[in-house]
Write a structure and sequence with these properties.
Elements: E1 2-10, H1 14-21, H2 27-30, E2 32-34, E3 38-44, E4 48-59, E5 62-73
Antiparallel strand pairs: 1-5, 2-3, 3-4, 4-5
Length: 74
């Protein structure tokens, strides 16, 4: 399984980032969500099953944003 992680730190509290990400009204109905720090999505594509994890981790002076994408042949 391949796995990719991308991180950066921004000068914004997790709650503010969270409100921006979940502005799509129906996401909580089908997405595994742990407000205001994490949501996970799962995609079944023609040749791969892919999981994306989006985390907002409080850090001194801001928030660390971590996006992890992992996939395997379906």
């Amino acid at each position: 399984m391949r796995r990719y992680v991308h991180e950066l730190v921004v000068n914004t509290p997790p709650e503010t980032l969270w409100r921006a990400i979940v502005d799509i009204r129906r996401w909580p109905e089908w997405d595994a969500i742990e407000p205001p720090n994490r949501f996970v999505d799962l995609a079944h594509l023609p040749l791969v099953k892919m999981r994306g994890s989006h985390e907002f981790l409080p850090e001194r002076g801001g928030t660390r944003i971590r996006v992890t994408i992992a996939g395997r042949p379906s």
